[in-house]
Amino acid sequence: MKESQDIESATVQLSPVLETTGLPGLPDSKERRYDRQLRLWAASGQSALESAHILVLGASPTSTSILKNLVLPGIGAFTILDDGVVEGKDLGANFFLETDSLGKNKAEEAIKHLGELNDSVAAHAETRALESILDDDPTYLHKFSLIIAENIPQRILERVTALLWDSSTGAGDGDADADASQTVAPPLIVVRTSGFLADFGIQLKEHSIITTHSDSAASLRIDKPFPSLLAHAFSLNFDKMDVTDHGHIPFVVILVRVLQEWKNDHAGKAPSTYAEKQEFKQRIVKMKKKDDEENFDEAVAQAYKAWTNTIVPSEIEALFNDPSTKNLTANSDPFYHLVHALQIYTSQPPHTLPLSATLPDMKSDTKSYIHLQRLYKEQAAEDKARFTDILRGIEAGAAGAGGGGSVALGMVDDFVKNAHALRLIRGKKWTGLTDDVEALTLAREMAPAAVATHLSLSALYAFEGKNGRLPKPGDGADREEMTAWVKARLTATGWAPEPEPEDSAMTGADEEEEEPMPKEITLWEHVTNAVGEVSRAPAAELPTTAALMGGMVAQEVIKVITKQYIPIDGVCAVDLASSTTGTVKV
Amino acid sequence: MSVAVEAPPAANGASSSSPQYPDQYYYVDQILDRPGPRTDEAFSAGDPVKSFLREQCKILVIGAGGLGCEILANLALMGFKDIHVIDMDTIDISNLNRQFLFRPKDVGQPKATVAAEFIMKRVPGVKVTPYYGKIQDKDDDYYMQFNIVICGLDSVEARRWINATLVNLVDPENPESLKPLIDGGTEGFKGQSRVIFPTISSCYECSLDMLNKPTAFPICTIANTPRLPEHCIEWASVLEWPKVHADKKMDTDDPEHISWLYKVASKRAKEFKIEGVTWQLTQGVVKNIIPAIASTNAIIAASCCNEAFKIATTAAPFLNNYWMLIGTDGVYSYTFEHEKKSDCPVCGGETMDVEVGKGWTIERLIEWLTENQKIQIKKPSLSLGTKPIYFQAPPQLEESTRPNLEKKVHELIPEGGEVTVTASTLPFTLTLRLAFV
Ligand SMILES: [Zn+2]
């Protein structure tokens, strides 16, 4: 079958096979085009992307690489701001400029070639200078969903970061009086590149994530079985079952039963010592009717779930005490209303999160599994109903106080389903110059290579800010100035250069040939390497570095916009000479 | 380990290394004009290295899909000018969310050809030679002409083939025969890139056990105790399709075939009260679809090309030898050296020691081989010296060796005996030394 040439006009295709089945038809052209990504962020993530409008400051190779990775998955709209004209050097490193573009406005040329990647994306060029917008039309920036600044001079960058940070009153400020005038400025991603080195960070006040796609599974509540599960586990007569049925009892049922029996023998306590845990597992093994009953093997392998306490995870508990939850107002973000409802919910017995309806696959026959699955679904529905009642109560109270609105049902569903893996990120104002001594002290110990990369890029910006020009490639004096700047930053954190290790190789008397221990690279060596690399090609937009940053930053944009998966919390530093990356919270 | 592709001095002037327009290589030249702090001494800054990169270096890109499109664009901008690309696929609508050299009008056209034309149009001075076909169509002489090979493939089998081919190509007498292989792969927000110096560093086969095992459902679950929608879909495709359609081969690219499976799987799911069978899930299960996005492909392709550039120019040390990235929770990446395995069937040279149960039949041994993560072989044939133990083909030989399947291993093979294992899909043989326990 040949695909339609014009995918926009193609609609739902008819399927003769499905015609009389009452089943939905084939996916439409949009679903087919986006199939590989819908499997990651579903229709909800896609519609968030399609409602977003991204502003990119500067039509650099990195900027167009980022945009390419957002236009392809179908971002709603994007604007490139650039008042410069295309020169040969731009053309050579930027895949989205053509020879014809020479001498023309960079933003207008770049949007032509980016726009053609996806007809459903709106592409705009802004040819005013950024500084004149900051002077005359600062609210211009507020109409975008997210802003990306790549290699913007420090002086201008500081105006942008301040404008977006200071005008944004996040709910975290806890200032109830500010509610009326509350504005949330778009998140800003600051990207810096220099030859093989690059870094980026996200400036956002707060970012709550419900659909984290966490790998950690919700509790099956084996240690705190809900009534229908407990009743079911004891309704089965294991001994009288025939061999086939016995070999198909789901491990969850086995564990609930054995644990309860164990507790009956042990004053209500679950196994806690190593010996007790071994004994518990032996009990399960002894229940086998045949040696090859895999469901009992599974129960042994999963036995730790019997002594894993189902409690409210400390990360979730922390959300209850977050200032935004504590100072809840009618206008607070729905996330905090949901968290507050969860806090009340968990304060009531059995003091757990609402049950998740998802049951993993396990050795079982169809009937037993589907029955167990139904018990989980029914209890999950009951838990959700109790949660929703609490939430609606809070909302009614808020409505009485002049607030309003109720959290959409779909969001409640997602929240309850992911209650064990919620995440809240509180960002900081972007300061490439890292004046936070405490944070820098910690970071230089945790991730010296990443700190070195980050500081040398900051040194480059500082150099440009001070001298009004970039360092000359390979120039010794300019390199020394950047090195001194980095050293001053590190010294402020109490750091002193490590003493040169003594050359012990010659003094070693023993004749045996020893493997030389790989030498740990010191922070100072990292700094020398990183500043040296920056000095080699201070302003080089290396196409591979641009492409790699284009991918990484686009991933972050997608995560922030869809509110799915978890964006970075801090600064990510990339060193493509050593093929490493690191994230530091500075 | 220090292996560098020698950059010979410029031949006669800098004809094709000169840019097509002023400043074409303005940024790349900043890197090539002087060494950095970690640059190897072999680096010949300036014209020599530029002339090698732009006049002599010949690079092969395998795959013109999600990674391939990105790789081709990066290489062209970095200054590689003689690029070859192989891909056997044509363009599908579901490629357009990430394969950015293709447009809706190109659907149905060969990927390699369309990609090559696009690159040559966008980056003047670059020659891209496409081949629309299989990597297996090409012989050793073909692969011998390249300095570096980059793989952006989604097929494990094709990777194993090119890996084994490049390992076999190495002639210790001829340094030119060592072709660095750079391999990239992605899945959703995750990916990895690696550099392989065949016979010197860990090869693709050495790390086979790092792959996620493809989810295979036991046939008895599918037939008797389905619990998940996937089980119903497998039932439709594995058991019902051959029963109903006899000789007609299932084409997972044909939407009507997927619709049929969807219909049959839905009916079974309803019967067993299993929820969740959808058209998309059906397609995903039978085609083993891996989620793919442009941004992850961009990261991995950039990493691969950055390594290719460093190998070709020695401008900075290249990756030794594995980089993995996880972008689901922040940005986490890990750079490490994957160890070469001395008993790797491709590059190890040593025989693999295998402990065989006393009661094992030849059939059990074959089953063990096909299930082993380190080996991952389909339909293996076994022989002891020149004596066939069991052959999958040709039919006469299969028939004459079939009775051996039932026999105990130790009846046919002595303790310490060396068994040769071959499979038609793989260009290498594996030698096992058996010990009975
Ligand atoms: Zn190997």
From TrEMBL, chain A:
Gene3D superfamilies linked: NAD(P)-binding Rossmann-like Domain, Ubiquitin-activating enzyme E1, inactive adenylation domain, subdomain 2
Matches recorded under SUPFAM superfamilies: Activating enzymes of the ubiquitin-like proteins
Cellular component aspect of the GO annotation: cytoplasm
Region (Disordered) residue spans: 495-514
GO BP terms, alphabetized: protein neddylation
Family: Belongs to the ubiquitin-activating E1 family. ULA1 subfamily.
Name of this protein: NEDD8-activating enzyme E1 regulatory subunit
Organism, as annotated: Tulasnella calospora MUT 4182
UniProtKB/TrEMBL annotation, chain B:
Region annotation Disordered: where it falls in the sequence: 1-22
Composition-biased stretches (Low complexity): 7-22
Catalytic activity: ATP + [NEDD8 protein] + [E1 NEDD8-activating enzyme]-L-cysteine = AMP + diphosphate + [E1 NEDD8-activating enzyme]-S-[NEDD8 protein]-yl-L-cysteine
GO CC term, one of those recorded: cytoplasm
Entry's Gene Ontology BP terms: protein neddylation
Superkingdom classification of source: Eukaryota
Catalytic site: C220
E2 binding domain mapped to chain residues: 354-437
Claim: Chloroplast is one of the keywords in the record: no
Pfam families named among the record's database cross-references: E2_bind (PF08825), ThiF (PF00899)
Pathway where it operates: Protein modification; protein neddylation
SUPFAM superfamilies: Activating enzymes of the ubiquitin-like proteins
Transmembrane segments annotated in the record for this chain: none
Keywords of the record: ATP-binding, Ligase, Nucleotide-binding, Ubl conjugation pathway
EC number: 6.2.1.64
One term of GO molecular function: ATP binding
Keyword Nucleotide-binding in annotation: yes
InterPro entries reported in the protein's UniProt record: E2-binding, ThiF/MoeB/HesA, ThiF_NAD_FAD-bd, Ub_act_enz_dom_a_sf, Uba3_N, Ubiquitin-activating_enz, UBQ-activ_enz_E1_Cys_AS
CDD domains: Uba3_RUB (cd01488)
Family named by the database record: Belongs to the ubiquitin-activating E1 family. UBA3 subfamily.
Biological role stated in the UniProt entry: Catalytic subunit of the dimeric E1 enzyme, which activates NEDD8.
Protein name (database record): NEDD8-activating enzyme E1 catalytic subunit
Organism: Tulasnella calospora MUT 4182
